[in-house]
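Anyone able to model this chain together with zinc ion?
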Amino acid sequence: MPARKLFALLACTAVLTAQTNPLWHGQKTKNYLPEMTWPEVQDLLTRTDMVILPLTALEQHGPQLPIGTDFFTAAEEAKLIAQRTDVLVAPILFPGISPYHMEFPGTITMSSDTVQRVYFEAAQSLIAHGFRRFLLLNGHVGNTSVSRYIIDRINQETPAVAVELADAAAPYLPKSSTRETQFDRHAGVGETSGGLYLFPTLVDMSKAGPNSLELPEHLRKMMPDVIAHDPTATTVFLAEGLKPKATGKHTSTREMTSTGVWSERNTNEATAAQGRTQAENFVTAAVQFMERWKLARPLQPLAERQARTVQK
Ligand SMILES: [Zn+2]
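re: yes, here you go
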């Protein structure tokens, strides 16, 4: 190609590129509500009445992971599930219940009452359109109680049925053969590995490194039993651990860690391969549960579902 023609072609491409937002790199994902049109939602409603609601958080995740880690983890896993079994994914809210991370800048926390109301009202809208089965995918341990409450409200107060997806999928997960020898939870090797697989461009491994924990003496003594999954030690440890500074328990993340990483491991050990195994095992187990539920409770015709909707 002559140089003049090549220059004209490049100039033309530059003009075309300049006409759209240079920051936009989004790709439309099938069945992801914010990116769908209403005719697509209407069409999906003829094939399914199932919705995954990711329950998420906006909270510090150490120096190497983004504040939105729990959102991205739950939303990306939900999207992967929805490519394998035809269901809607409806992200509703970024923040969740994170008061014990508040000493680290960027964390946003809400009351349980606010969070449950937002999700319940969102579920009511989806029920009005004909969705009838809700799968709550909780990406943040601090949301556990509120997740159960939302599920119970949907089951007790509406024509829809709701379940906790992690509980429902658990019997379908492969038995873990690796034995843990070190404590590794919030923003640790497991979660960083998940990030490296699910949202790799947002993980900064140059900031990963060693971590240590400062624990009240009696919790420090429980640690070997917690690592060995002793049920009593785990129950007591988690009831007391990760609580806001104002409770005086000395177990907020800032009081227990300098980095915000609740782990004794070096986060440099995280790998995308481990994250992939974790994510694929969960996605496969969730799909198996959902396919069985679809068989166990056949889809009612859409006209019937919409006619039965209780309008407020
Ligand atoms: Zn997290």
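The pocket of zinc ion is lined by residues 61, 69-70, 140, 186, 191 (CB under 6 Å).
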